[in-house]
Amino acid sequence: MHIIKIDLEKCIGCKECYWACFVDVIRWDDAQDRPVVAYPEECATCNWCELSCCNEAVEVIPVNPVPYPEPYPKFAYPASYVTS
Ligand code: SF4
Ligand code: SF4
Predict the structure, then answer these.
(1) Which atom of ligand 2 is closest in space to residue 20's alpha carbon?
(2) Nearest-CA neighbor of 37 among 45, 28, 46?
(3) What pLDDT, in 10s, does the model give residues 2-53?
């Protein structure tokens, strides 16, 4: 599950992160007038909430249980590993 951190000390309640999230991850707490991370398991790590925040209060930390493969594995692209 990915981690979405919202620094409520920095947050000014502009709602941009809430509007930015195209899935259900960030919801709005009407009582506190602040965003709340409701469904982090649905995060697509698009980073749009982080980029939308005018006050750098949102941080998306991808957590991938399986590491990404090497983009150019040596056995398939030996030429890319040649150094001179
Ligand atoms: S990274 Fe994308 S999917 Fe995840 S909480 Fe932010 S806007 Fe929503
Ligand atoms: S975009 Fe940033 S400042 Fe605006 S509500 Fe979200 S966390 Fe708060």
Answers:
(1) 1
(2) 28
(3) 999 999 999 999 999 999 999 989 999 999 999 999 999 999 999 999 999 9
Please report which residue ranges of the chain form alpha helices under DSSP H: 16-20, 48-52
Rounded to the nearest whole angstrom, what is the distance from the C-alpha of residue 61 to the centroid of ligand 2?
A: 17
C-alpha of residue 40 to centroid of ligand 2, in Å: 17
* Distance between CA atoms of residues 2 and 60, nearest Å: 7
What is the pTM assigned to this prediction? Answer: 0.80
Ligand 1 pocket mutation, candidates 28, 60, 61, 63, criterion most atoms within 8 A of CB: 60
- The atom of ligand 1 lying closest to the CA of 25 is 5
Choose the CATH number for 3-61 among 2.60.120.10, 3.60.10.10, 3.30.70.100, 3.30.70.20.
3.30.70.20
